[in-house]
Specification:
Elements: H1 2-32, E1 40-45, E2 57-63, E3 69-73, E4 79-85, E5 89-96
Antiparallel strand pairs: 1-4, 2-3, 2-5
């Protein structure tokens, strides 16, 4: 009888160890998961025909299905980022305050 109790205790201990490891793996997975993204981003550099960067250009990004728009402005190096875009957004036109269309 004592041998059976010992075997049951070992099985319980092993099961608890496995559950504990499972919980640790779940905790690690949730710590890593926020780094994932379901959308995309559009980045680029706006330049003129001569290749010079255009500062403070406004870039409009439009969802062709819904008409929703997102806007970004280029920095001093002409670089822009439009982050966390759901699918179906496409870049449309860019316009700088110092240029005429």
């Amino acid at each position: 009888m004592r041998k059976q109790v010992t075997l049951i205790n070992r099985r319980v201990i092993e099961a608890l160890k496995n559950c504990g490891l499972g919980l640790v793996y779940c905790a690690l997975a949730t710590a890593i998961a926020p780094a994932q993204s379901i959308g995309g981003r559009i980045t680029g550099v706006i330049t003129d025909p001569a290749g010079a960067v255009i500062r403070n250009a406004v870039v409009n990004v439009t969802n062709e299905g819904t008409g929703a728009q997102r806007r970004a402005t280029t920095d001093g190096d002409g670089f822009y980022v439009v982050p966390e875009l759901p699918s179906a957004f496409t870049p449309s036109k860019s316009k700088a305050a110092t240029l005429s269309p």
